[in-house]
Amino acid sequence: MNASEPLVRVEGLTHYYGNHLGCRDVGFELYESEVLAVVGESGSGKTTLLNCLSTQIVPTSGKVMYRFRDGHVENLFDMSEAEQRVLLRTDWGFVMQNPRDGLRMGVSAGANVGERLMSVGNRHYGNIRKTALDWLERVEIDPTRIDDSPRTFSGGMQQRLQIARNLVTSPRLVFMDEPTGGLDVSVQARLLDLIRRIVADLGLSIVIVTHDLAVARLLSDRIIVMKNGKIIEQGLTDQVLDDPHQPYTQLLVSSILQVGA
Amino acid sequence: MTSEPETLLKVRGLCKGFTMHLQGGLRLPVVSDVALAVRQGECVVLGGPSGAGKSSLLKMVYGNYAADAGMIEVLHRGIIVDIARAAPRQILEVRKKSVGYVSQFLSVIPRVSARDLIADVARAWGATEDAAQRDAADMLDRLNIPETLWSLPPATFSGGEQQRVNIARGFMGKHPLLLLDEPTASLDAMNRKVVLDLINEKKTGGVGMLGIFHDPETRAAVADRIVDVTAFSAAA
To answer: Which end of chain B, N or C, is more open, meaning fewer C-beta atoms within 10 Å of its C-beta?
Structure first.
């Protein structure tokens, strides 16, 4: 339980898809309650990095050292697939860009949240339903919609439901892949504000991949800028965005539309 | 009143320039070899014409701009932290507990009422919910924000009202060192007087301040010392 030790330590992470480079020699540390944004354009390797970190793909080389709740540290890729799956279900959450990929569209909103609780051993129906109701309220979904299918929800509601589904089991680490990507601007603002508050309340560690620097600025403590599969700049979010050093980062920052700043 | 005031900030050998890669690598020197210190209970004002690097200097002390060389030592819970070298999470800790930034222009957080924005700060500094709400109300009242607006998010306010909410937030914290980035610019006489009072109260409470004030009258009213930034001109 030593909070001064990183939760995740990434070393020399490299992934090739055949001859094609995904990401190369990526290294960083993530501490508890830290929100890390990974930014870069399409093809910069940020999604490859996220998929390696969350063990959805096995990297060509490199390590991801993870500190478990009991304090022991292990390379995720030395674990069996079954162990990795348990981790993904208990210690972690994964919020996908498209809520239809992260939700089970065939079951009710309540079941989407409750299912995660059952997967970590909850069996008491009344408790599960009560917790699901609490979480719907927390993500600003009308609790009377608990028995409705997420198909009847708007995109913003679906995304909020996906967040509830991921956070209900109190994960330590949550991966987010462009969580506001497909949403209208006004819906995005509401979702960002919600994520910001929940993250602060729960003290979660987050790795969020986004191409939107405004999202990174609002949510993250630290930022990693990727280009051609490599980290080209990293540091405190407001420092990297307000005083960027690398040519590519300066280009990214200068490309933001200044709206009412 | 017997103990010597502690040094809260000590800057030495600080250098900064910008390399504009989008303008063919154009190099803009800002400051070089800056040395200054701020002790408890004093307000040090950065002087010099616009473009001299006052604002960049303030931003470096806050960790918002990176330093090219030199040291920015701040006292953080009894330990000296060099902001020029500190890890991001250390800088965030320092900002939470030791160094506050008072500016009229902070990014507005959507959907949070003016009163809650300020109460959040009071709560972060240990106030109970009731006390935090009361302190927030007092501060908004002092800065002449009409009570009808308190429950609304500042995004809907006039420019001047938003500026005063940001100032209120900045002064609500209990940081031992405050960086004041033109907190009185464009305020009317009545509100400028309120901000001067807030600064003087902080000073009496032992808070050290490093600030930028363009208005000579205000500067004269708050400054214990003026540090002329042109002395650190890098372009010379």
So the answer is: N
